């Protein structure tokens, strides 16, 4: 019995096609845990819909994925001089975010990242003049801009890209390809119309693989159910049951990512109030689990174990049965399933 990821395959692939149709030349992204699906599965999907390139997060991911995908692999983490050498085939394209990095990659295929308003990494405007000599000894695949998701200052993503196109053109650098992230389809169309000699390629991960929330569902199998009365002690810490009910052991623990939460950016009063409430409940060992039973998200009886979680289901709910599956609201990018089930 397992923590399973169920995929409505036809619906999932229909969503993929809708995204691909909106973004001609799209470069699928497969990084981290493969957006919850795994590297091999996303490599297979990319091969199926015919993309010539797949973007990965690191050189280590590229070393693994190269055996599953036969096209070009774009490594998104920028090259740094002195990094550990990893044997990679010639079809791997390295991102570079510094002039020094370009000089160090003699003979390599490279994409040069420009410093966007993200201010994460990239070549700066004042460094563009130094690129002429640097790109003579590499195979330049294009430039790239990684843009922010939110623009709270009201700025325009298209104008930011246009600004960089103008700077690169003024520096007399080749503009045959520009890789971009976090643009809408209409914005990409505007850019393509304004710069018809440049091929714009959107690098897309979340929207492509996770854009249809109804296409996937996590479920954890019930492994054991034990009746408890108010005051009964249980678990590693021998806490007391707050009321009558059941202790439900369900597949899915910390090794799967259950109970591990990445920080989130909160906007507005209500999300912040909910965050404060959750933090307050946690101080008295009240932590809401991601598992749903009988129409409600259930509380952890104690912190999740490595492979399983123990939930408390009160006696006024339906009694769970061994073998039943509980829907789990889990974040794809931090979850590792036991099995994937296509249906």
TrEMBL record:
Record domain Alanine racemase N-terminal: where: 15-153
Protein name per UniProt: Alanine racemase
Natural source organism: Streptomyces liangshanensis
InterPro entries for this protein: Ala_racemase_N (IPR001608), PLP-binding_barrel (IPR029066)
One Pfam family recorded for the sequence: Ala_racemase_N
Transmembrane segments: none
């Amino acid at each position: 019995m397992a923590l399973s990821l169920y995929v409505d395959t036809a619906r999932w692939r229909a969503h993929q096609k809708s995204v691909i149709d909106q973004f001609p030349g799209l470069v699928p992204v497969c990084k981290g845990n493969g957006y919850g699906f795994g590297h091999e599965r996303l490599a297979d999907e990319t091969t199926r819909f015919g993309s010539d390139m797949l973007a990965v997060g690191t050189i280590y991911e590229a070393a693994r994925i190269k055996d599953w995908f036969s096209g070009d692999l774009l490594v998104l983490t920028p090259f740094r001089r002195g990094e550990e050498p990893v044997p990679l085939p010639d079809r791997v394209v390295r991102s570079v975010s510094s002039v020094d990095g370009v000089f160090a990659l003699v003979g390599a295929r490279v994409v040069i990242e420009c410093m966007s308003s993200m201010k994460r990494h990239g070549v700066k405007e004042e460094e563009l003049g130094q690129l002429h000599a640097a790109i003579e000894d590499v195979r330049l695949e294009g430039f790239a801009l990684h843009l922010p998701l939110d623009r709270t200052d009201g700025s325009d993503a298209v104008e930011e890209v246009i600004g960089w196109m103008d700077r690169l053109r003024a520096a007399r650098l080749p503009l045959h390809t520009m890789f971009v992230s976090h643009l809408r389809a209409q914005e990409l169309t505007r850019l393509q119309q304004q710069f018809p000699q440049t091929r714009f390629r959107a690098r897309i991960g979340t929207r492509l693989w996770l854009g249809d929330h109804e296409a996937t569902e996590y479920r954890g199998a019930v492994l054991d159910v034990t009746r408890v009365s108010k005051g009964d002690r249980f678990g590693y810490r021998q806490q007391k049951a707050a009321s009558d009910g059941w202790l439900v052991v369900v597949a899915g623990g910390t090794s799967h990512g259950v109970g591990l939460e990445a920080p989130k950016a909160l906007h507005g009063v209500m999300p912040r109030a909910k965050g404060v409430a959750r933090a307050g409940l946690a101080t008295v060992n009240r932590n809401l689990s991601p598992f749903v039973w009988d129409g409600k998200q259930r509380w952890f009886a104690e912190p999740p174990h490595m492979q399983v979680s123990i939930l408390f289901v009160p006696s006024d709910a339906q009694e769970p049965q061994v073998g039943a599956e509980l829907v789990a609201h889990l974040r794809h990018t931090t979850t590792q399933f036991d099995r994937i089930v296509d249906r």
